[in-house]
Structure formats: C-alpha cells, structure tokens
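The following block was generated as part of the benchmark described in Methods. Ligand: iron/sulfur cluster.
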Amino acid sequence: MIANDIDLEKFSKYSRPGPRYTSYPTALEFSDKFKYENYIKYLQEGKEPLSIYIHLPFCRSACYFCGCNVVFTSKEEKLSRYVEYLKKEIDILANHLDTNREVIQFHFGGGTPTFYKAYELDEIMSYLKKHFKNWSDEAEISVEIDPRFFNEEQMKVFKKHGFNRISFGVQDFDENVQKEIHRIQPFELTKAAVDLARRYGIESINTDLIYGLPYQTLESFSNTLKLAKSLDPDRLAVFNYAHVPWLKKTMRKFDETTIPSPDIKLAILKHTIEYLTSNGYKMIGMDHFAKPQDELFTAIHKGELHRNFQGYTTKGGANLIGIGLTSIGEGERYYAQNTKDMNSYEEAIDSGKLPFERGIELNDDDIIRKSVIMELMANFTVDIKATEKKFNINFNKYFADALNSLKEFEDAGLLKISDDRISVEPTGTLLIRNIAMPFDAYMNKYTGSKKSFSKTV
Ligand SMILES: C[S@@+](CC[C@H](N)C(=O)[O-])C[C@H]1O[C@@H](n2cnc3c(N)ncnc32)[C@H](O)[C@@H]1O
Ligand code: SF4
C-alpha cells in the first residue's frame, strides 16, 4: 500500500485495455442518421451556456509519441489560410446560434496553438469576441502551449483576452528520452515559459508528463518528476503513454524493445503517486494531480466535477461548440464532429456550411448511461437514489448486467455498492475507465477488437 491508500498490485491485476479518452458513448458510435440539419437544429435551439473549443492543428515537426490530431507543416501560408477559414467558420456558426448565450469556457487546443504568431492569435480571439460578446467574468479561458514555441508577444495576447489557465506540454526531461521521442526541450526552456506565464499573472498552470515512453526508467522519471515539481505547477497531468502504432505512423519509429515493461511502468506510477502526494498534491482519477486548494477538489466534494474532452472541469452543463479541423462538439443530446480532411473542411466552408462530418443523437437510454458514466468518471461515485429519481428508473433492474459485471471489482475491494450509492475506492479510481465500461451500451461491440484500445498499464 502506498500514499492515498492506493494498492498498485491490485490495480495491475484488474486493469484491462481501454480507450484513452472516456466520454459517452466510450467508443463513439457516429451514425449516418445524424445529418447536418440535425446539428444545425441543436445549435439553433440550444439555450445552455457555451464552452467553445478551437482546434489549431499545426505543428512544425512530429513528436513520435503524439496521438493528437495534427497537421505537420513549415509553410506560413498554410497557417494564415487556416485563420481565414476559421473566421468564415465563426461567421457561419454565428448565423446558426444565439450569440448572446454566455461563454463560460474557452479552449485553444492543438496541434500547437503557439505555432501561430501573436497577431494571428489576437486576430482569432478578437474575431470570436466580435460575434460572441457575452463572456462570463468567471469564464475558464485556457490554451495548450508547447514551451518550444512560446514568446512574450503571444503571452501579451493571452493576457489581453483574459486567459487564466495554461497547460504546458513537457512529457519528459531526460535527454535520452527526448532524443528518442524527437522532442528536444531543455528544462531551462520550460522553466522560462512557466516563469513568463507567472509574470503575467496566470493563476493556473498545468504541466503534462507521459510515462511509458522509450528509454524511461524509474530513475530517469523520478528525476523528471523532481524537475517538474520544482516548477511548482498547480496541476500535473501524468498520462499513461497510449501506444497505438496501427493508428499513428510516427509511433512506428520507436524500437518497441526500448518501451518500459509493464513492471517498470507500474513502478514509475507507484513512485509518481508517492512522490507527488507527499509533496503537496492530491490525485484525481487515473492521471491528474492538483494542489488540495484547487477548485477541482471543492467540486468533487460537492459532486460537481465534470469530465469533457479536455479533461476534468468544474464547468458542467455547457454546450461544447467545436470549431476547426476535427473538433468535437457536445450537447446534452448529441455529439458532432468536424471533418478531419483539410480539403473537405475548406470546401464545406466555401459553400457556406459548417465543416460538420458526422454526429450522433443520444436516445433516452444513452442519456441515462452518459449521466452515470460521467458521475463515475468525475466524482467516483453514483448516487443511486438521485439517478432513480432523475430518470424514473429502478437502478438495480435497469443496470442489472452492469452491476453484475462490477461484482468482480467489488469483491476485489475496488468499490462498494450499497442501496444508495456506488463508491469507488482510491485504487479503483485508477481503474475508473474499466469500472465505467459496463455501463456503456456500445462497449461490448468493441471489446472483441483489442486493436481499438491502448493498454491500461
Ligand atoms: C495536443 S498535445 C499538447 C500541446 C502541445 N502541442 C505540446 O506538445 O506541448 C496534449 C497532450 O497530450 C498528451 N499526449 C499526446 N500523445 C499522447 C499519447 N500517445 N499518450 C499519452 N499522452 C499523449 C501529451 O502529454 C500532450 O502534452
Ligand atoms: S505533442 Fe504537441 S507538438 Fe508534438 S506533435 Fe503532438 S501536438 Fe505537435
């Protein structure tokens, strides 16, 4: 047993391969039945506050571990052309929804948002704000930054537009690992980026690390953790490397024999939890650490934490609007995804349409399951009585199969099930994807195809 009452032997014994991003349906089942018109209708009729996501997909060069939706380029004109298309997309969007709806969350994701020059970032934000004027004073405004591409001019633009959260991609500080993953990023450079954000008063700084990368050892990763801690981030994400070379070509560049074994990965995870929890951080779920005063913990205690495509958040109930290549939007009853192909993206916009490619409409059963899965993923508990009342169901009957599947976890002491509540124990929170899976109606179709998923350990 280690800090936080986490038992990693149990974790390793009960972990199963699973999807990296859990939302509902876990294995998104897009359907041809959900057409462009359906999406537009949801946009037009929506009344909830808005959470806006803009995807800036470009990167200069490939980090070989990267699983994100990225376009590699060194051509400036490609970047500026995309800004023009984003602006047209915002115009079209603004024609289809009430732009007075309050914006409570905004996120620039990538790719590398700071691959763009300061004036271009300013142009995108100003254009968005020209259409969407009603920003909440409490809005969470965030950006993912690669410290290798970040300067003070860009920081000034973020400050001007009220950004209050920055997530820095670090991954690993070890030189050998950095060489192998094709991402040279000296500690001093990352420190300078973090210091710059602090000088401009950014309240919440996150650093992303990944364990399971080639050449990592317990010793090398311990050193990475020490260096990361010395930056005093408010939050740390320590992701388990999702190795899916059948989906991402650059991952095939790795010599797989240099990827740490499950035993070493487990030792790294154990050390990470011990080290961070004895140095002022508390763990949230399978991959996040934050200082105890972080609002995420207050939200967990109130049962108000949520998980969306960007990770944990205290802003629930918003209508997520995805702008840009590959972006995903989410409403209470639908998901919609933009095209992944740049030509189709431009063609759609040139013809005055949003670059919607596919979507899914949730039925009543989906909505009940999504609610339970989200409660588990974010708050690690399900209030059975409240769920019964909200959806007018008999929980034990409705979820008889799922509860049956959870028996294995219950017997192993990973969770408790009473008449009122399912409560996940600390070790179980690391397995939350696996614990949530039985509630996912679409999961069974996919578990046969191991290649869809990356390993949990
Ligand atoms: C869009 S990327 C980061 C933004 C920025 N381009 C950068 O590299 O700093 C978001 C994060 O996803 C994580 N990530 C990317 N590929 C991953 C993989 N295959 N397995 C686990 N985490 C991954 C990395 O930690 C990365 O910082
Ligand atoms: S990790 Fe970041 S910089 Fe590297 S390829 Fe992926 S998105 Fe681009």
